[in-house]
Design goal:
Strand order of the largest sheet: 3-4-5-6-7-8-9-10
CATH topology: TIM Barrel
Helix content: 25-40%
Order of helices and strands: EEEHEHEHEHEHEHEHHEHH
CATH architecture: Alpha-Beta Barrel
Structural class: alpha/beta
Largest sheet: 8 strands, parallel
Shape: globular
Strand content: 15-25%
Distance between the termini: 38 Å
């Protein structure tokens, strides 16, 4: 495995196993510089969303990177206020214009807004059929949400992006997704930094000469979870990518798996009131 390694999705599209997340990158220049750095290092996936208000910067950085558009996997998401069938189609047009692109690789429902998320996914399915997106997917969907979507979907979601890290390993949901052929991407893969002081993780890192963050990202990869760590710091962007020259043992994987405490650092999709 290396930074260009991919996971083959249900429709045969190859998705990079590690990408750059750009959540809360609000300074335009800093955002462009972070994406430019990531692409220079060798990242080939960028994860944005309408909510992040930086789709323009993602498009700008990619256009000026010297890397071919078709070699970069771009994800964006429809925000909660824009959900429903017609609204989603309109929101996608806005995102596409901001990105300055002809298509998006992966388009996601950002959160399962009650009474709307199934229709939102129907719109995403249409965008897929019209070849405006290469992969249809969802984010923050628990198994009941996925089951509701799949009742009416002709094409099941191929990716589910969820909060996941050693303190929230999401094993039952990951197992459900695996059964359905849905790839899992972890947002907040480092638990917003909340898992990086964990003694077990730090000790494993010392053994390999790696940081706690590198150990956690490696744990995700070995659990077949795609990761999109966010950073604007050039050294951290490089460090997060430097996880392919060591491998955690079975015993170490079991130890980190055992750290799960079902602790969220973000919102819970089951009781999220969509208040931001």
């Amino acid at each position: 495995m290396n930074l260009q390694s991919t996971k083959k999705l249900a429709n045969g599209v190859d998705m990079p196993i590690l990408g750059l997340g750009v959540y809360k990158m609000t300074d335009p220049q800093e955002t462009v510089e972070a994406i430019t750095k990531a692409l220079d290092v060798g990242y080939r996936a960028i994860d944005t969303a309408a909510l992040y208000y930086n789709e323009e910067q993602v498009g700008e950085a990619i256009r000026h990177s010297g890397v071919r558009r078709e070699d970069i996997f771009v994800t964006t998401k429809v925000w909660n206020a824009d959900q429903g069938y017609d609204n989603t189609l309109r929101a996608f047009e806005v995102s596409l214009k901001k990105l300055g692109m002809d298509y998006v690789d992966l388009y996601l429902t950002h959160w399962p807004v009650e009474g709307k998320y199934a229709d939102t996914y129907r719109a995403i399915e249409r965008l897929y059929e019209e070849k405006l997106i290469r992969v249809p997917g969802v984010s923050n969907h628990h198994a009941p949400h996925l089951q509701e979507v799949m009742k009416m979907a002709q094409i099941p979601p191929m990716v589910n992006q969820i909060e996941a890290h050693p303190y929230l390993s999401q094993e039952p949901l990951r197992a459900f997704c695996a059964e359905q052929g849905i790839a899992v991407t972890a947002w907040s893969p480092l638990g917003r930094g909340g898992v990086l002081q964990d003694e077990t993780i730090v000790k494993i890192g010392e053994k390999y000469g790696k940081s706690a963050a590198q150990v956690v990202l490696r744990w995700h990869i070995q659990n077949d979870i795609l990761v999109i760590p966010k950073s604007v710091t050039p050294a951290r962007i490089e460090e997060n990518a430097n996880i392919f020259d060591f491998e955690l043992s079975t015993e170490e994987m079991v130890k980190i798996n055992g750290l799960n405490r079902n602790q969220r650092f973000g919102k819970n999709p089951d009781n999220f009131h969509f208040d931001f």
